[in-house]
């Protein structure tokens, strides 16, 4: 397995997200990144998200640049350390990253990273959002499961588990915000479409 592919896949998704954030900023005059640093639940979730992303970036870059050193320091999980599972992991990373990017683009001006103070864009319920209320997060979790299979070590597992917990918590905060902002329309949407898939 090429040790650089996981880092390249992560880099593609990261650069797309950055480019989309810049585009939305130019189009609307406001940044779509609304993560806070406050000393509340939202602020904590934002800080945790930043830490998880930073550790993921450092981890995958270390695997790409110093694979033998990472393996010597962390070891590998023997049950997951097979060429077939590595290939499946890369496919899941690519599919998850692709779903994340498609879902971000499909939200158009409603796409935000974090929870805005005031809802200034419409509720998106069509396209990918007709099948999942959170296709961005489905993509992210799929990519993280792929990371565990492509790079089977304890850091990958810890990142996937901590991201799952963080994302699950973030979804619930977003649902509270959307229920407040869209009322009955959001409640009806929740009855039609599942949280995940």
Write up this protein.
- This protein is an all-alpha fold.
- The model has no long low-confidence stretch (mean pLDDT about 95).
- Helix 2 (about 40-65) packs antiparallel against helix 6 (about 155-180).
- It is built from seven helices and no strands.
- The chain has a single domain, classed as Four Helix Bundle (Hemerythrin (Met), subunit A).
SSE blueprint and pairings:
Layout: H1 5-28, H2 41-65, H3 67-74, H4 83-106, H5 135-150, H6 154-182, H7 184-192
Helix pairs in contact: 1-2, 1-4, 2-3, 2-6, 4-5, 5-6, 6-7
Major beta sheet, specifics? none
Low-confidence stretches: none
Query: How many strand units?
Result: 0
State the order of secondary-structure elements, H for helix, E for strand: HHHHHHH
Net shape: elongated
Query: What CATH architecture do you see?
Result: Up-down Bundle
Q: State the name of the first-level CATH class.
A: Mainly Alpha
Number of helices: 7
Helix content: 55-70%
Please give a handful of descriptors for the protein shown.
Four Helix Bundle (Hemerythrin (Met), subunit A), mainly alpha, 7 helices, 197 residues
């Amino acid at each position: 397995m090429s040790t650089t592919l996981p880092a390249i896949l992560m880099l593609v998704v990261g650069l797309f997200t950055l480019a989309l954030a810049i585009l939305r900023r130019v189009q609307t005059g406001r940044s779509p990144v609304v993560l806070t640093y406050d000393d509340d639940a939202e602020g904590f979730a934002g800080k945790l998200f930043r830490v998880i992303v930073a550790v993921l970036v450092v981890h995958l870059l270390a695997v790409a640049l110093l694979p033998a050193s990472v393996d010597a320091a962390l070891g590998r999980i023997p049950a997951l350390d097979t060429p077939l599972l590595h290939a499946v992991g890369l496919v899941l990373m690519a599919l998850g990253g692709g779903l994340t990017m498609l879902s971000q683009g499909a939200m158009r001006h409603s796409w935000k990273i974090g929870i805005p103070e005031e809802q200034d864009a419409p509720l998106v319920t069509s396209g990918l959002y007709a099948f999942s209320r959170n296709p961005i997060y489905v993509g992210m979790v799929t990519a993280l499961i792929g990371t565990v299979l492509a790079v089977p070590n304890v850091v990958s597992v810890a990142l996937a588990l901590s991201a799952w917990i963080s994302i699950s918590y973030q979804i619930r905060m977003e649902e509270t915000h959307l229920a407040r902002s869209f009322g009955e329309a959001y409640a009806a949407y929740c009855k039609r479409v599942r949280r995940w898939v």
